[in-house]
Amino acid sequence: LAQSARAGRAARLASQGAASMGLGLRVDRWSLMIVTAVVLGCHYFDQLVHVLGIASSVLARRLSGMVEAGLLLAQPDTHDARRTVYRLTPASRDLFGYLVCFSTWAAREYLHQPSSIRPVHKTCGQPFTPQVACSHCGEAVKPWDVAMAPPASAPQP
User: Fold this and answer.
1) CA distances from residue 94 to 91, 105, 129, 155 in whole angstroms, order as listed
2) What is the mean predicted confidence (pLDDT) over 86-103?
3) Which end of the chain is flanked by fewer CB atoms within 10 Å, N or C?
4) Residue 4 above 60 pLDDT?
């Protein structure tokens, strides 16, 4: 029964498309906070409860859903098989840019103070301010520099 429920959920998500899936994720504050905590090095249930201040029942449901959706991997700890280690998947790693930009914005606009954790570029060792840039020319872009266009249509046979 659990397999069929998972298959049904996966089919619903696939039929809704990536935009709907992304929208559902964005409005779930716990999912973003959990992925952010895992990015920052919290890989165990007890660490996540402590750092996020989330009820263990809520965390258990969110982790289960995120593993099912392919956003996290749950693996037995190599040192203690009774514990589960949560790791990022390629899908959740793709949220990195969004998470860095969002946390920087939230610290500045919502908390009105610098974050106690700030991104540092490992290569040069300097803190950085994330920015959105064009993947083609590398130029930084602002909202007024972007137009939304429909995807190119497939070639007709």
Assistant:
1) 5, 18, 18, 29
2) 86
3) C
4) no
Is 60 inside a domain boundary? yes
Residue 75 pLDDT exceeds 50: yes
Whether 22 is covered by a domain: the verdict is yes
What is the CATH classification number for the domain harbouring 103?
Answer: 1.10.10.10
Could you tell me which residues come within 8 angstroms of residue 87 by beta carbon, excluding any fewer than 6 positions away?
38, 43, 72, 73, 75
Separation CA 94–CA 92 (nearest Å): 5
CB-CB contact of 72 with 48 (8 Å): no
What contacts 148, CB < 8 A, 6 or more positions away? none
- Taking each continuous run of H as one helix and of E as one strand, the counts in the chain are 6, 2
Tokens of 67: 């593993």
In a domain, 66, yes or no: yes
Q: How far apart are alpha carbons 7 and 13 in whole angstroms? A: 10
Expressed as residue numbers, the domain containing 71 is 2-145
Q: Are 45 and 31 in contact (CB under 8 A)?
A: no
